[in-house]
Amino acid sequence: MIELLAPALLAGLAVAVVAGPMGAFVVWRRMAFFGDTMANSALLGAALALALQVNLYLAVSAACLTVAVVLVGLQRQRQIADDTLLGIVAHITLALGVIALSLQDSVQVDLFAYLFGDLLAVGWSDVLALWAGAALILALLVWQWRPLLSITVNEDLARVEGVAVTRTRLLLMLLLALLITGAIRTVGVLLITSLLVMPAAGGRRLARTPEQMALFASLIGLAAVTLGLTLSWYADTPVGPSIVVTAALLFGLTLLRRPAS
Predict the structure, then answer these.
(1) For residue range 236-246, what is the model confidence (pLDDT) as tens digits?
(2) Into which CATH architecture does domain 2-188 fall?
(3) Are the C-beta atoms of residues 86 and 33 closer than 8 Å to each other?
(4) What does the DSSP 8-state code read for residue 121?
(5) Coil, strand or helix: which one is 258?
(6) Is pLDDT larger for residue 223 or for residue 191?
(7) Cα 181 from chain centroid?
(8) Exposure of 125 by Cβ count < 10 A (0-12 exposed, 13-18 middle, 19+ buried)?
(9) Taking 90 as the threshold, does the pLDDT of residue 49 lie above it?
(10) Which DSSP state fits 119?
(11) If you average pLDDT over every residue of the chain, what do you get?
(12) How many alpha carbons fall within 13 Å on the CB side of residue 149?
């Protein structure tokens, strides 16, 4: 049991510890659709990989990072709200991905593993890669925390204070894309999207400061992964959905108390 669950648990914890603070920015900036947009971009990348006969994971990563850069460019126009823009791009990439897949003679089964993940199939090399990526993202977050927080509160004021708004926004989008693409292969789109939104939404109700919200979000995510994996093992339920349901239950518990003031 321990030998089977240890890599899965450590991989899930690596994703959760980073998804907490990153999810805080997703909630603050009302970018809940971002995970879905990256998921659809991953589908497009996978379809292109099949068509061009290139490495599937690299193609998915390239597609997600490209879409993140395009989104930053579109956001500079300030003509469309972020959530509306994300919805438009999500549907465009989904349509293009489905069209590209329809042109293929056959779809490899591995495509679904990349999109939906299989936490119990994670190996120790995947665990090391996830924790290395998590360390990198956390280091960049700590380094750029104040600028990231400033553009989230008020971009105009941040610009007056000397913050490079466009560069900082691009960094945030690239970090989110990096987190999602790094997790797609192992834990899947369903899990990473839920760990971005629900723990952060719960942490928001418990925290008094932005830093506390990021911390609580990580703790809720860590608990959701641990309890969800335990539920999956004893109840013989799918791992990803079990973690999602556990995260939802933990968020529900935060609704029982009044938001911190």
Answers:
(1) 888 888 898 99
(2) Orthogonal Bundle (1.10)
(3) yes
(4) G
(5) coil
(6) 223
(7) 8
(8) exposed
(9) no
(10) G
(11) 85
(12) 12
> Nearest 5°: CA angle at 162, between 71 and 25?
45
| Token digits of residue 57 | 């994971």
Q: Vertex 244, ends 141 and 192: CA angle to 5°?
A: 35
- Phi and psi at 105, nearest 5°, equal -70, -35
Burial class (CB in 10 A: 0-12, 13-18, 19+), 166: middle
Neighbours of 112 (CB within 10 A): 13
pTM as predicted: 0.86
pLDDT digits (tens, 9 = 90+) for 17-48: 999 999 999 999 888 777 778 778 877 887 88
Tokens of 69: 């850069």
Six token digits for residue 116? 């939906």
- Tokens 């719960």 label which residue? 202
Is residue 228 a contact partner of residue 247, using CB atoms and an 8 Å limit? yes
Are residues 86 and 31 in contact, defined by beta-carbon separation less than 8 angstroms? yes
- CA dihedral over 133, 135, 137, 139, signed as positive or negative: negative
